[in-house]
Design a protein that fits this description.
- The chain is built from 19 helices and 2 strands.
- The protein has a two-stranded antiparallel sheet.
- β1 and β2 form a beta hairpin.
- The longest helix has 33 residues.
- It starts with 9 loop residues before the first strand and ends with a helix.
Length: 429
């Protein structure tokens, strides 16, 4: 097996910089650009996509010339999603532009596969994690100050979303999800290294999440915090402590649902929120409308699937298909599970299931296993990185997260760390 101890290929004109290290630098810069989606290019492209393309090219050159073994994590699930989408597009005579969605899927998968090369070069993991943590902290600080100062051109506040901040993401929910994921990446990597600075960074990220007014972000943050405490107790005190934490959380949730919620008039609370603080009005105050809209989308989507066939209608065609069938409420699925079934059919749904299983297995390995020393220094608490899995699975119920660039960045990091663990076991045996 070829490792990073092998002499890496060098770039012509840059005699002192191995290609593997150049790849790490480009990947770090690309990670820095992940939150910059506005202004965007044609076909929902963003500045980070240029970095992804360059990273893929450099990764292929490095792997070829340095004879680095390459594995493609998540390949079975991604093939199912791509095959289901392509078949649905052909059968339904979808517009040629639908092919761009499949190209974007393939590019994101290639990005995660390039990140997985971090199993051979810790510099890749180091560059991506450090840049991600620093970018999230600085970005949150700048956006928090801009929001408090009312600089709407920077915070993305517009009449469409009320006082909710979308920052440079173009959507408050997407912004909130990125920041929630970033919070757990920071906790897993313990970066910034100074405990005091890190606590300040945590506070800035949480404030930035709050200004998005995203109910989904707050829900996934709560899910992540509960699971984070549970897995941390498992690592420190054993399985009993971890399960006890989950049981206690479930008990508290059950008591609230059984005894508190029936005695609380949520409608009145929403009305008060709608008439009080603008941010509460545009977030919690509209939660009933948002929930009603999503329930309508699910009902219409289920009817559409039952009336159609098992092939699907083609990627990103839920809205146009609903319009063509004169559905009363025409909108995108805003749900990865429903969108995959409608747009990519049963083949795509099987692909999504395989992808979910692959992610689950890797997350479990991060929770129960130990990283090699050189990686443990970069990610001291990998079990908190694993918590992002359930966070994103929850978010997929009300967003279409499969197109989030930060999701595939996280998937690539997880794959790199898990394969590094496997390499360590193989060397020891």
């Amino acid at each position: 097996m070829t490792t990073t101890s092998a002499a890496p290929a060098r770039i012509v004109g840059l005699p002192g910089l191995p290609r593997g290290d150049l790849l790490a630098v480009v990947m770090g810069l690309t990670t820095c650009l992940l939150p910059i989606l506005v202004p965007g290019g044609p076909g929902n492209t963003a500045a980070a996509d240029a970095g992804i393309v360059v990273s893929v090219v450099l990764a292929v050159l490095w792997a070829t010339q340095a004879h680095v073994p390459v594995k493609l994590p998540y390949i079975a699930g991604v093939c199912g999603l791509l095959l289901g989408g392509a078949l649905a597009a052909v059968v339904t005579y979808a517009p040629v532009g639908v092919g761009l969605v499949l190209v974007q899927d393939l590019l994101l998968f290639a990005w995660s596969a390039c990140l997985a090369l971090g199993r051979h070069n810790p510099a890749i993991v180091s560059a991506v994690t450090v840049v991600w943590c620093r970018t999230a902290a600085i970005y949150s600080g700048v956006m928090t100050i801009a929001y408090l100062m009312g600089i709407n051109a920077l915070t993305g506040v517009s009449a469409k979303d009320g006082v909710r901040a979308s920052y440079t993401f173009g959507d408050p929910n997407l912004a909130g999800n990125y920041l929630v994921v970033s919070l757990f990446v920071m906790a897993a990597c313990r970066h910034p290294r100074s405990p005091g600075v890190r606590r300040v960074a945590y506070c800035l990220v949480v404030m930035a999440i709050g200004f998005t007014g995203s109910n989904g972000a707050m829900l996934t943050l709560l899910v992540g915090l509960v699971l984070g405490v549970a897995v941390s107790r498992y690592r420190a005190q054993g399985a009993t402590a971890g399960l006890a934490t989950l049981a206690m959380a479930a008990l508290i949730g059950g008591l609230i649902a059984a005894f508190v919620m029936p005695r609380v008039d949520l409608g009145e609370i929403r009305e008060r929120a709608a008439g009080s603080v603008p941010l509460l009005r545009d977030s919690f105050g509209r939660s009933s409308n948002s929930a009603g809209e999503r329930a309508t989308i699910v009902r219409e989507g289920a009817s559409l699937f039952l009336e159609g066939d098992a092939v699907g209608f083609g990627p990103a065609r839920t809205k146009s298909t609903l319009a063509a069938t004169q559905a009363p409420y025409v909108k995108e699925a805003h749900n990865d599970y429903l969108a995959t079934l409608l747009e990519r059919g049963l083949i795509g749904a099987i692909g999504l299931l395989l992808l979910g299983i692959a992610v689950l297995v890797r997350c479990v390995r991060l929770v129960v296993g130990d990283l090699p020393q050189r990686y443990a220094e970069l990610v001291p608490r990998p079990w908190l990185l694993a918590v992002i899995g359930p966070v994103m699975a929850t978010a997929a119920g009300f967003y279409e997260v499969l197109h989030f660039r930060h999701l595939w960045t996280w998937l690539g990091l997880v794959a790199a760390l898990v394969m590094a663990m496997q390499d360590q076991r193989d060397e020891a045996s």
